[in-house]
């Protein structure tokens, strides 16, 4: 699926033509540079490798700096492969936010916010036990996790406390509300995963 690499700027809200307030996310989408062209003859499949967000050459190794120099661009912080571009793009070409149109639907994937070690109430939405009848210490505890003598173990996949967040998440079918071409901004309806300034991948 064709798309772009972007950076989450933050959330805001806009009003539609009916006066309804719509929550939306602002994404800096591109400009992305074509850093490699995959072909069937050489690689066995067709794809375009896009690079986004400049960084200093000293922050990258010599092999990567040479790779980016072939495309006639500076070192990039993020590199992702995409398939399905309709236009004929060559090494060093730029893909801008006008790749998307207002009203179409996109999928946005990114890394969700890391929450650290969390209990079952926050991690899995457990209700917790009742607060009455004099018990105090088990309000947010998970309760029973299995039988004792048989099977004498906890089954795999049991919902328990543990590390939460920091996972790859894809949100599908977000409507593009606005495309601001002069600033390379994309405004999509709803929320996208990740914290502010985190990288996201927008796909058609």
TrEMBL record:
Gene3D superfamilies: 3.30.160.810, Translation factors
Highest rank taxon of the organism: Bacteria
Keyword Phosphoprotein carried by entry: no
InterPro entries associated with the record: Ribosomal_uL3, Ribosomal_uL3_bac/org-type, Ribosomal_uL3_CS, Transl_B-barrel_sf
Any single GO CC term annotated in Swiss-Prot or TrEMBL for this entry: ribosome
SUPFAM superfamilies reported in the protein's UniProt record: Translation proteins
Keywords: Ribonucleoprotein, Ribosomal protein, RNA-binding, rRNA-binding
Keyword Hydrolase: no
Entries under NCBIfam families matching the protein: L3_bact
Function: One of the primary rRNA binding proteins, it binds directly near the 3'-end of the 23S rRNA, where it nucleates assembly of the 50S subunit.
Oligomeric form and interacting partners: Part of the 50S ribosomal subunit. Forms a cluster with proteins L14 and L19.
Family: Belongs to the universal ribosomal protein uL3 family.
Protein name: Large ribosomal subunit protein uL3
The organism of origin for this protein: Lutimonas vermicola
Lineage, opening ranks: Bacteria, Pseudomonadati, Bacteroidota, Flavobacteriia, Flavobacteriales
